[in-house]
Amino acid sequence: MINIKTAHEIALMRDSGRLLYACMEELLRHVKPGVTTKELDRIAEQYITDAGAVPSFKGYNGFPGSICSSLNDGVVHGIPSDKEVLRDGDILSIDMGAILAGWQSDMARTVGVGEITKEAEHLIKITRESFYAGMNKACVGNRLNDISSSIEQVIRAHRMGVVKELVGHGIGREMHEAPDIPNFSFKGANPRLREGMVFAIEPMVTLGKDNVRWMDDGWLVKTADGSLAAHYENTVAITANGPELLTAP
Questions:
Q1: 8 A C-beta contact, residue 75 and residue 212
Q2: Which has the closest alpha carbon to 11: 102, 94, 140, 130?
Q3: Residue span of the structural domain in which 194 resides
């Protein structure tokens, strides 16, 4: 069942989203060569807790970090480490969430470390564009597959890979709620979108093929062919006036 949020509940989720956005903006200022992913994790955890919120990833199914940090061919769910040092030319995906007053927010960004290649810049740009193509379909009366197919169309138009083993999701009091939100056109249950639905829309895109593999730690997911990957996510509410970004300033 897809949970429908009231205007008041969406306002509380907006507060959570604004906090998370501000945290991400602060965190991205620290992304530079020589910094470890564990340092970034500590910064994010301190920022979120100082604001009276809880890092929703920490302890989730045993995950040890407050952020997921995935480098280069890492798609998602990388564990921050003091041994993982950012280097010039890397691309880094940061995914994180916060719980404020009981309500969740979730977002992700992929950014370059120092000077990156034109191909990597293009990958990050198209991943972002695919998100907005999907978000713009998050309107009352549309169907879920309108979001999914719009994301895929942008990615395929640029001959990039679409990760299919991992998808977006509903969000509210729980980090993961119904429905799953694929980043590709699908068949089967295709609910009509209603005011009050809130989704975490999150395309995951590769410069190679669609396939991924799980690492031995049980968390980090990498591209199977070693190609670069990017991730872009926001929490989005469906309103009478169209989609609203909740992870925004």
A1: yes
A2: 102
A3: 7-243
Helices (H), the chain: 7-28, 37-50, 118-135, 144-157
Burial 43-60 (b: 16+ CB within 10 A, else e): bbbebbeebebbbbbbee
Domain annotation covers residue 204: yes
On whether residue 54 sits in a domain, the answer given is yes
The single-letter code of the amino acid at 131 is F
Q: What distance in Å separates the CA atoms of residue 239 and residue 72, rounded to the nearest whole number?
A: 36
Please report, for the domain that includes residue 135, its CATH number: 3.90.230.10
Split into its structural domains, the chain has a count of 1
pLDDT digit string (tens) for 54-72?
A: 999 999 999 999 999 999 9
pTM assigned to the model: 0.98
**Residue 249 covered by a domain:** no
